[in-house]
Amino acid sequence: MRDAGRIQGLTFPLEMKFPECVSIRVTPPLPAGLAVSLRFHMKQKNSFTYIVFSDTNGAAEVRSDVLLTSFDQDRDTFLMDYKDPRAAFDGGITARIMSVDELKDALAAYETFREGLSFPCDYLKHLQFALTLGDQTSGHTVGVFA
Q1: Average pLDDT, stretch 128-138?
Q2: How many Å apart are CA 47 and CA 58, to the nearest integer?
Q3: Which end of the chain has fewer CB atoms < 10 Å from its terminal CB, N or C?
Q4: Amino acid 8: pLDDT
């Protein structure tokens, strides 16, 4: 666990394949729409990041096909920066509640790349709403499950 109270990691044995589904749970639950950054650690090159938004129970989940489609798009766009996550995934996933500054950075990235990359349905609306919640990073933990 890094940065106590904010990040809880999950590590798979190295021989495990990319997970079929990844879920998070924020405790204690916060308002729906909280942005949580999922970082998928790789054996080589850069890690992949995917943002999920919590429901009213503090939970969110994303399937591997959605993750891999997003990661393939990143890899195709930035060829030198990423390896194929199907082979390079090292088993580590960390989840972290995003700060206001990180949300602003995500919004700026969206504006920069929205013409060339596809984003999940209502991604911009969810980011903007998460920003209205303010900084919710202290006093909560995020569990990640696969």
Answers
A1: 88
A2: 25
A3: N
A4: 55
Q: What is the pLDDT of residue 3?
A: 39
What residue segments make up the domains of the chain, in order of their start? 7-145
How far is residue 112 from each of residues 69, 75, 97, measured CA to CA in Å?
Answer: 20, 17, 23
Helix (H) or strand (E) holding 10: strand 7-11
Q: What is the pLDDT of residue 9?
A: 59
What six digits make up the tokens of 52?
């999920």
**C-alpha angle with apex 37: 128 to 32, nearest 5 degrees?**
50
Secondary element (H or E) of residue 93 = strand 89-97
Q: What CA–CA distances, in Å, run from 129 to 18, 29, 78, 134, 142?
A: 30, 17, 29, 9, 19
